[in-house]
Structures are given as C-alpha cells and as structure tokens.
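Incident log, support desk, overnight shift.

02:14 A customer reports that sequence design results differ from what the structure should imply. Their input is reproduced verbatim below. On-call engineer (initials T.W.) acknowledged and began investigating.
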C-alpha cells in the first residue's frame, strides 16, 4: 500500500488526498506525531545550523519509511532542505504541493480588506 508521509505544518486537505490517490497512487497518509509536528513548526531562528535540530524527525522517518512511500515535505527552508537531501541520498521520492492563490478585495467605507485563498493544484517532485 502506497503512503504519503506528510512532513508539513498542515493537515492534508480532501483535495490534496484525492490528487495523491489519482496521481501518486497513494492510499494512506502518515502524519507526523504531535511532538515532531511541534518541532517542525517551531524552528528556532537563532541557531546556526538545523542539522541537529531536525535529527529526531529524520530518525522517525527512517523508522517508518517503506520503499513504496512518498515523502511530502514543505516548511522552513533549512529543515525542508535537510529532509529533501536526506531523501535524495536514499533515492526516496520526495514531493511538494503547488497552489494557486486567489485574491479578493472587499471594499467598504472603512477601507479595503484583502482575502487570499490558496487552492491545491498538484504535487511536484523535488528531483526528476
């Protein structure tokens, strides 16, 4: 059974899961455990390197990864690059989600309010 391992700050939407099923042959999502999701979403800006910071996540990933899995990784650039490099070294398929941004202006006597909606378009491979 193909899984997508979700290493992002977001819960997979129904639209993303449907795309993963149709185009990546995915049958299941494996999300980060809560402690690692918190780690992923709170990368400290004052450290020189994130190599040690991301090691608990890479340890978890190596323990759960199966050869048919696809890793979906997006987030703070340094930790994202660390995971992508780790996957590349192991020849693990690694993807990111692309979106379309739809902006709407709402005019009122108090000014203009902007609203942005991001719609999933597709998953794209990091390396091909």
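02:41 Re-run completed on a clean worker. Output:
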């Amino acid at each position: 059974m193909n899984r997508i391992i979700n290493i992002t700050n977001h819960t997979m939407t129904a639209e993303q899961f449907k795309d993963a099923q149709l185009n990546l042959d995915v049958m299941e999502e494996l999300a980060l455990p809560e402690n690692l999701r918190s780690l992923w979403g709170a990368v400290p800006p004052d450290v020189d390197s994130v190599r040690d910071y991301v090691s608990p996540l890479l340890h978890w990933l190596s323990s759960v990864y199966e050869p048919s899995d696809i890793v979906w990784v997006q987030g703070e650039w340094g930790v994202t690059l660390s995971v992508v490099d780790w996957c590349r070294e192991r020849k693990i398929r690694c993807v990111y989600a692309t979106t379309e941004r739809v902006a709407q202006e709402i005019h009122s006597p108090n000014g203009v309010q902007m609203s942005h909606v991001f719609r999933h378009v597709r998953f794209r491979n990091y390396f091909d």
